[in-house]
Design a protein that fits this description.
Blueprint (H helix, E strand, L loop, with lengths): L2 E6 L4 E7 L1 E6 L2 E5 L6 E5 L2 E6 L5 E14 L2 E11 L2
Parallel strand pairs: 1-8
Antiparallel strand pairs: 1-2, 3-4, 3-6, 5-7, 6-7, 7-8
């Protein structure tokens, strides 16, 4: 079962796709998400979002100023600023 992830900034979609694991930094600390995770609404802290795709490929992004929402098997990360790390 895959986790559908959408990472958006104030002005653009940064990354969307399927993942097996996502780790993000919130004001409460880092939190990891996999498919089937309980619903969560949290304030995003400045830091990295680490996305592990189903094939094991890693996607890294910097994000700050926003929130994340986990509902069902969908994780939405909305940041004021977000960009992929090359």
């Amino acid at each position: 079962m895959a986790l559908h992830v959408s990472l958006v900034s104030a002005d653009a979609e940064v990354w969307t796709g399927e993942a097996s694991l996502v780790v993000a930094k919130t004001v409460e600390g880092e939190i990891g998400f996999m498919a089937g995770h309980e619903p969560v609404l949290a304030i995003l802290a400045e830091g990295q979002v680490r996305i592990t795709q189903e094939d094991g490929t890693k996607v890294l992004a910097n994000a700050q100023d926003g929130f994340l929402s986990m509902e069902g098997d969908a994780l939405t990360i909305v940041a004021g600023n977000a960009a992929l790390i090359a």
